[in-house]
């Protein structure tokens, strides 16, 4: 069974386990602020994960020392797969470098953004669209309106 988190089961009834997400120090390759609130997620013995999104379940997402939106984690597996929701506003996400370290596949739930590659190609990313960008892809991300996506990286 893949591990969702580095926590310890706290409520074992033979089928369901309440797990805590790993501490920020164990999130290899990602820089998150210290002291983030810990939220419980549910993982059953069959290995599936579920989570509920609330106003309090979002945490700042910081990459290369810069806050780049907010994130709600569903899975952070030791094997490197990550999934969850990510959101950003047009002011905060006006423009930043987009360089996925692993394949980033996502479904845009709301909003619009534009990705511009170094050779000038512009890719419109819009609500309802499903996209996949390989590791090593490089572009400038420009958020056009409040944006939210469900992503799977890895």
Task: Provide an overview of this structure.
The chain is an all-beta fold and 154 residues long. Helix content is 0%, strand content 45%. It contains no helices and 13 strands. The strands form 3 sheets. A 6-stranded antiparallel β-sheet has the order 4-5-6-13-8-11, with no helix packed on it. Strands 7-12-9-10 form a 4-stranded antiparallel β-sheet, with no helix packed on it. A 3-stranded antiparallel β-sheet has the order 1-2-3, with no helix packed on it. The protein is globular. The model is unreliable at 1-40 (pLDDT under 50).
Concise summary:
It is built from no helices and 13 strands. It is mainly β and 154 residues long. The strands form 3 sheets. The protein has a 6-stranded antiparallel β-sheet with strand order 4-5-6-13-8-11, with no helix packed on it. The chain has a 4-stranded antiparallel β-sheet with strand order 7-12-9-10, with no helix packed on it. Strands 1-2-3 form a 3-stranded antiparallel β-sheet, with no helix packed on it.
Shape: globular
Q: Major sheet, described briefly?
A: 6 strands, antiparallel
Strand content: 35-45%
Q: Could you state the order of secondary-structure elements as H and E?
A: EEEEEEEEEEEEE
Give the total of beta strands.
13
Radius of gyration: 16 Å
Question: Looking across the biggest beta sheet, what order are the strands in?
Answer: 4-5-6-13-8-11
Structural class: mainly beta
Helix content: under 10%
Query: Count of DSSP helices?
Result: 0
Mean pLDDT: 76
Unreliably modeled segments: 1-40
What gap, in angstroms, lies between the N and C termini? 17 Å
């Amino acid at each position: 069974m893949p591990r969702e988190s580095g926590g310890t089961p706290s409520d074992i009834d033979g089928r369901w386990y309440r797990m805590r997400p790993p501490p920020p120090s164990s999130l290899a390759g990602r820089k998150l602020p210290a002291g983030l609130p810990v939220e419980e997620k549910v993982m059953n013995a069959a290995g599936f994960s579920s989570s509920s999104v609330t106003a309090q379940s979002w945490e700042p997402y910081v990459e290369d020392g810069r806050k780049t939106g907010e994130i709600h984690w569903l899975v952070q597996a030791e094997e490197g797969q990550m999934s969850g929701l990510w959101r950003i506003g047009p002011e905060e996400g006006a423009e930043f470098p987009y360089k996925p370290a692993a394949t980033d596949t996502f479904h845009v739930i709301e909003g619009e953004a534009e990705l511009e590659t170094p050779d000038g190609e512009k890719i419109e990313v819009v609500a309802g669209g499903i996209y996949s960008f390989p590791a090593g892809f490089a572009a400038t991300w420009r958020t056009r309106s409040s944006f939210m996506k469900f992503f799977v990286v890895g």
